[in-house]
């Protein structure tokens, strides 16, 4: 479709990101790409990826649509750290369109702005802001899976944006892997009790690629343990979260290939070595996975 007719934009302008999540890819995170050089031993890892060579190129590409956009969706890398994201907000404000544009984000919520750019100041000009917050664990488990994450800092930022942004909607998006399947009930409890998250706003996004992080890539005894934990937890939840937990539990008994378990062991050991972390210390209940 010619760009002149666009009303909604899904924007991923670069892989700029300050986090190095284990289940992410270098194509989506510049910080992870730097690690990847050591972890994968690949020689030609592209660290910084950008969709546009310059701000001028981006501005001229979108100039036909400023006055007609209704929705813009920003995803990562981390959009709050991308200058292109602020440029788009500025152009929408300049063209007097911002009061009619809804903004959607996928974010790690680690910052409240970038340099001179203050998110709250920009968002005052827009009617509705929806944030899909990526969180794969709380406390040290969250920090292990999502290097850069800090649970207390995350909670402070949730509270800050709730207090300062009108028209704000928050969703909690958990990437489900073999790291965190066992701890989903604990995470749901923390989100509800410490952040006041309603069950309906908690979503699961199971990893399928790479297969070595998929939830079914567990040993038989661990599959059994995770399955029982999730089924038991689902009995205390209401719809629709109850069905979402059951759907995740259904993934566990899918067949797995021993090659995936070996790849998990190899990758986890390499990441631990490069980052000075210990899978066994953070996830003692899963330590048999590394045997
Ligand atoms: S915050 Fe998002 S883009 Fe950044 S490393 Fe994590 S998953 Fe990837």
Please give a quick description of this structure.
This protein has helices spanning 30-40, 55-62, 83-94, 119-123, 139-145, 151-164, 184-195, 220-234, 241-252, 258-275, 279-282, and strands at residues 8-11, 20-21, 71-74, 102-107, 113-114, 117-118, 128-134, 146-147, 168-176, 202-206. With 291 residues, it is of the alpha/beta class. The model has no long low-confidence stretch (mean pLDDT 95).
Spell out the blueprint of helices and strands:
Elements: E1 8-11, E2 20-21, H1 30-40, H2 55-62, E3 71-74, H3 83-94, E4 102-107, E5 113-114, E6 117-118, H4 119-123, E7 128-134, H5 139-145, E8 146-147, H6 151-164, E9 168-176, H7 184-195, E10 202-206, H8 220-234, H9 241-252, H10 258-275, H11 279-282
Parallel strand pairs: 1-3, 3-4, 4-7, 7-9, 9-10
Antiparallel strand pairs: 2-8, 5-6
Helix pairs in contact: 8-9
Bound molecules: iron/sulfur cluster (SF4).
Iron/sulfur cluster binds next to strand 2.
